Amino acid sequence: MRLLSQFSAVLSISCCCLIAISANSACAADWNQWRGPDRTGYVATTPAVISELPALGLTPTWITDSIPSAKGGGWGSPVVADGKVYLFAHKKELVGDPPGEKQFPYLSPEKRTPLSDEEYAEYEKNRRAEDAERAKAYEFREFVLAYDALTGQEEWVNQSESTYTRFPQSGCPTIVAGKLLILGAGRTARCLDAKTGEQLWETKLPGEFSDEFYQASVLVVDQIAVFNATHLFGLDLNSGSIVWSGDPEQTKSKHASPAAWTHQGKNYVISIGNGGDAVCLNPQTGEVIWKVAAEGGSASPVVTGDKLLIYGNSRKKGLACFKMTPQEADQVWVFQRVTDKGSTPIVANGAVYVQGERKLACVDLETGQQMWMANLDMENPQWGSPIAAGDIGFYAYDGILGFSLNPDEFVTRFDAKIDKNHLLAPTSHFRELYQMDSNDLDAEARKKALKDYQQNVGRHGPLKCATPAFADGFLYLRLSDRLVCYDLRAASQQVSQR
């Protein structure tokens, strides 16, 4: 473990308990599941955060040793609970002869045009069969890792045998009442002791499996753990026994994680169902109470009060808001100026912050009216979701964008990159360092400057498609090969500058 501590003394975290929307206890400083404690992407209670980055940047509070990521380990996001940071990775290791050249490589959309629908379907069938055969040269394992949230010291690693999936299994752990829940490959629901990493139970979910991958994260409502593996299942939190299996047609879904809704003291499960419908279920029985055409995609539903937000994967589908009752849901508005394959929006203080197509928009929660729209200087961002804490939002893709949660205008707090030494600094700092904007360079020197910038800065940012976690003033990021933590507390920076 390589640690870069900014402070000689470990600061203690004190936190009070609150009741999250999932009807489970969570620490006010925690980011204990996908999209934070209530799955809106936002946590209100936080120490004051720096208004801008130091001119020369921030060194990490800590970084971990190498962690397999992306196609070598998945895109799962970190979570923070009870003073620990958790991450799930799905790793493959070569154990046989390296596979030769592929006969059926992936075809980008422009290369599919000569094929009819029937021919392309047959090609995809052959491609998947070839990939499954090539996978026999590898062994697959799953890792759940736990680190001390303040020091980065590795606490424990849980390793288990796994299986091949077309893309690595990449769900985000859920921590509730000392239990860690994860959906493993091959339709395997797992529960670990969050303190020790010891496995408490494992349940194979019924259903066909060949090479499917399930990216949704687990939701816990009323002691029922809700898993999304082709369709929804409800398992007893303590024993892992299957309490209910959702209607295979109505609750059929892909990668969107379910959310919880509490109305007049009663809890419900909200999920994306078949055809992008929004469905409301009884968490105790799995019974579908209502469904509404919503044209959802892979983005997770967001519940705030009695409002439901569904983000589709095209401008036509848009970002839709529904008013929910225990009997039905009615569409209130739809915003159609951005789209993304899987980015889930933030809800904070009566506003919705939604990312798509190199844009970030602020939309009024009540009316759907656009408050502002900003362009993102990023390379084709998609699948990554913004988060927010206190009065600042974060979007991590090529770098880190910090912006004010201000519905009146878009205000950049910082526009930063991360270099090979994991320094988080303003983009302007790196551009000046590598003379990217110098008018004194000839063509060859300019080419070298660009190469140096790409090698030392451009290739070392956040892992694309992973979402940061934020807890008690610290930002936790999954990079291309490890986890890193930055202390963004204003008070800490004032101390370091004395």
TrEMBL record:
Keywords: Signal
Record carries keyword Disulfide bond: no
Signal peptide segment: 1-28
Domain Pyrrolo-quinoline quinone repeat: residue ranges: 144-372
The keyword Signal belongs to this UniProt entry's keyword annotation: yes
PANTHER family: CELL SURFACE PROTEIN (PTHR34512), OUTER MEMBRANE PROTEIN ASSEMBLY FACTOR BAMB (PTHR34512:SF30)
Protein name (Swiss-Prot/TrEMBL): Outer membrane biogenesis protein BamB
Organism: Rubinisphaera italica
